[in-house]
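To fix ideas, we now present one chain and its tokenised fold:
***
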Amino acid sequence: MPPPRPSPLQNRVQPTGEILADPARGMFTGNRGILTFDNGRLGTKHWTHPHWIICTLIHPKGRYHGPMPVRAWTPLFFLDEAVALAAGHRPCAYCRPKAYRAFKTAWQTARRSTHGYKQIDQALHHSRVTRARRQIRHHTEADTLPDGCFIWHDGTAHLVLHDCISPFLGNGYGTKADLPAGPHTVLTPAPTVAALRAGYRPRLHPSAETVTTIATLRPDCPQTHPCH
């Protein structure tokens, strides 16, 4: 009998694009092709094709998506859809057809195009990662970003939501703070930011809305501020 596989596997995707071992459960799984593991650790390949998708945990036919058979795709996991988008994925057309159509419509509106999934995936692949497997980041004014984006702030990834930011903690989101002023490093690929700005709304972990304590409360900050 083979020894039990290490748990957790290195299959939890971060908004920075890193793939770590994390025991916390995620809301979504996803696909980058067939990946290999050695004693629970991910091999050198972090993708084998450019079609990076965000899938439901439950297969459309009613069964759990994993474990996958040999020579099928290798499931990765995300806290929520905003994390998956930041890492460069997009909704799956098969198991999430409504989300895919909404994303494609927002993408086409933002780019004034008729792109299908092949063109979307090609554009995303050029915008999300270098050949050295490093996340491609860009800079913009934080107050121009739509909800659902991730920025790099104070040494960690933060979700932008309702004029506030919340740090990514792996198993949820932490204490909210006011959206910082000025240009910031954006983790979410630029084409995906444009799709979010054009109206796509990702599904977020419940903690994104329920954590309401502001980190740096100012005396002049009204109680009706979104961070409260």
Notes: The first helix runs from residue 81 to 86.
